[in-house]
Amino acid sequence: MLLDVDNNRDSRDSTGNIHASFQTPLDDAEKSIQCNICVNHCVICSGKRGRCQRRVNRDGILYADNYGMVISHSVDPIEKKPLYHFQPQTYTYSIAAAGCNLSCDNCQNWEISQPHLHSPLYNRITQEPPEEIVLRARATNCSSISFTYTEPTIWFEYIRDVGRVAHMQSLRTVMVTNGTITNEALAELIPAIDAYCVDIKAFSDEFYRTICHAPIGTFEQVLSSCKQAYDAGLHVEIVNLLIPGKNDDPKEIAELCEWIASALSKDVPVHFTRYHPQYRMQISATPVQVLERAYLIAREHGLLYPYIGNVLGHKYEHTYCPECETMVIKRDRSRLESLSEVLLVDGCCQVCGYQVLS
After folding, report:
1. Structural domain that includes position 322
2. Most buried of 4, 35, 73, 309, CB within 10 angstroms?
């Protein structure tokens, strides 16, 4: 089965290679190009690659050499993204590119986000045109397509094209991101995206510099992209992985909550998730009490929908009506099927009528 799609794709060279978006040629002897897709703003000489390893300068032209290259496919309950207020009780077709534009010490998907270009993992990559991804999503009864597991910003051109095709087939799209995309690039991507799930790694630039090895100003750009997405009407949910001794100070959590309430909205869901030892960071897992403290701080600052994540069976993974405190969405992450039971009528609490889901 073929889909009837438009031909509004990125420009290609004579061999079909995709020209990278948001590139600025520099006037130097190395035929350098500045990539402006993310906060790194890599300056890439001819024959070299950017930090993400997926944008390559070939004789003064920047190419996106990962277009359609998929390293991971999965059908997931939407709650696993985590998205708790976006199409609950549905499934999403999750896909990932190899690589990332950061190198976080605690990365949970480091095998596919940080592979060397000659890693055997690249043997898992398959070439998938946008139409094929949409067909697979429909064939598996998914309501959406999620760009996830690694940083989707490095897949910019592909996401834009998949989003166009998905929307034509009444599928929604989800970007699970570190939020480091530039405002100019996000503005062009927004029409192809419906939900923006952002991992705000900490409420400090120091964390981004020392743990994520990101350039100065990354923290501010992450906040800017969150606000841009929210103001544009995307469904936004925030994730904050709490790491003992690194970003779990109550003052910092309070500052995050204050920012969400003032810059975005008090009804934006925020997920405080439990850290487990991963990759280069092998400190102890986050105590549940620290997550519970963050939850209470969020409630004290007026946030209506804080959650605790990566803790099976915790009462704070459910949704409660802000008006009467009735449980209105029950979740069970130990189940293999849909993770939620929605106890709402047209998005409203059955007891008091408060609108929880729009």
Report:
1. 318-358
2. 35
